[in-house]
Amino acid sequence: MKRLLQLLALAVLILLAVLLYHTLTLPQADSRVAELPDLPQAMDEDAMVGRLAAALRFPTLPDQPDAFVGFHDFLRDSFPLTHQTLSLKAFGHSLLYHWDSKNDCPPQLLLAHQDVVPVSSPEKWQKPPFAGVVDDDFVWGRGALDDKGSLMAILEATEALLQSGQAPACDVYLAFGHDEEIGGREGAVKMAAWLEQQNLRFALILDEGGMMLPGSTLGMDRPVALMGIAEKGYMTVELQAEAEPGHSSRPPERTAIGDLAAAIHHLQTHPRPASLSLPTRKMLEQVAPHQSFAKRLVFANLWLFEPLIIRQLEGKPETNALLRTTMAPTLLEAGVKENVLPATANATLNFRLAPGETRDSLRAYLQNELPDNISVTSKGAFLSDPSAVTDIPSASFDRLAALARALPEQPVVAPYLLIAGTDARHYQHLSDQVFRFMPVSLGQDDLARFHGHNERLPRKQYPHMVRFYAGLMLGQ
């Protein structure tokens, strides 16, 4: 017995030594900071904010082609040097600009999209969604965050560099899709195919995605800049239950609506398994040096503490989505009259696929989990597997991180799995360095403004967004 206790004590000491070694040998946090370029005096900040507000007044919805025509006229008038200097190729309403640097080095590609999602309840907005209202603190309007803020800041940066006589370090392409919100098939897909035909490979591709959030999101005092290095896949399915129609006064034991409700409940109570994907592991490793010693010990030894981390992250919707494929019932349809049993009941479920999941594996899961009386059909043309994961550390990531640290918030920069979708997935075959980040600082409550009510961009941050993109083009 004594010998056994000695062996146990030795094992504990060895374990503690391993844990401490991993904790104490964590790489030091990168603290390199780039210098953001100053804007020319002619680029008045109030005027820049005014142009953004004007851009938000164009309701560039997929079913509003005239809004895109007017928006394009507005861009030409607002950024004359850009349209005189850069070449422009149109793909329907999508716009692809090329700035020739005259230098022989790999180009970079900056992405944004012109289209916005509809507004379901305009009366619930504090400011009219398409009025482009500017007050002392914010620029209000649909698209301010998703994604005309980025689009306009990129063009402001281009115009500012041209006004000051500066040129990019390497060629720059700007791709502004017009149908990102419905899959990008007519915009990003066609622009990416054309770029591939030109045999172009990009040193860096940057799209919307991550942003700066309060450090409390990851247990830190300083803000964190989440730099997307991958994004989840997308798949929508329709479940259908069938039953005999009849009079509601003599309902059978099972009905189409009841069977459908049971199927949805089963999927919600039997979610896909949780795990720390590579992007999430890298995120935790990157923020580990900024944690208290206890948390640093945990993050530095994920091989042991992964179950603990998963239990913690599962507790909030925004972090649970980092761990697994998620499901959201979004549409229900059944019945024709209050006293008639429906013959069919349908539900639309939207899945966001985590790395390691595929559309085929998800279909197999649904077929296995659901009873035979529930049919499963893929819905819509917008389907995608999870994106490739950008390999970091890399020179491109370091460059973006140094620019992000130069912003007034001075954030900690961490890689990140984007739980939504972007046009970037259509370009991933053109570069092994694809990132998703918008240089804007938001609060946790602002996340609901994406596709929700009261979308707005902090007014004072907008000029810093412009300087970030200018610094990226200049290679700083």
Automatic annotation (TrEMBL):
Outline the extent of the Peptidase M20 dimerisation domain. 229-370
Where would one find the signal peptide in this protein? none
For whether the record's keyword set contains Oxidoreductase, the answer is no
Q: Name one Pfam family in it.
A: Peptidase_M20
Q: Which UniProt keywords apply?
A: Hydrolase, Metal-binding, Protease, Zinc
The residues that cross the membrane are: none
The keyword Hydrolase belongs to this UniProt entry's keyword annotation: yes
InterPro entries xref list? Bact_exopeptidase_dim_dom, Pept_M20A, Peptidase_M20, Peptidase_M20_dimer
Annotated family:
Belongs to the peptidase M20A family.
**What is this protein identified as?**
Peptidase M20 dimerisation domain-containing protein
Q: Which organism is it from?
A: Alcanivorax jadensis T9
Its taxonomic placement starts with:
Bacteria, Pseudomonadati, Pseudomonadota, Gammaproteobacteria, Oceanospirillales
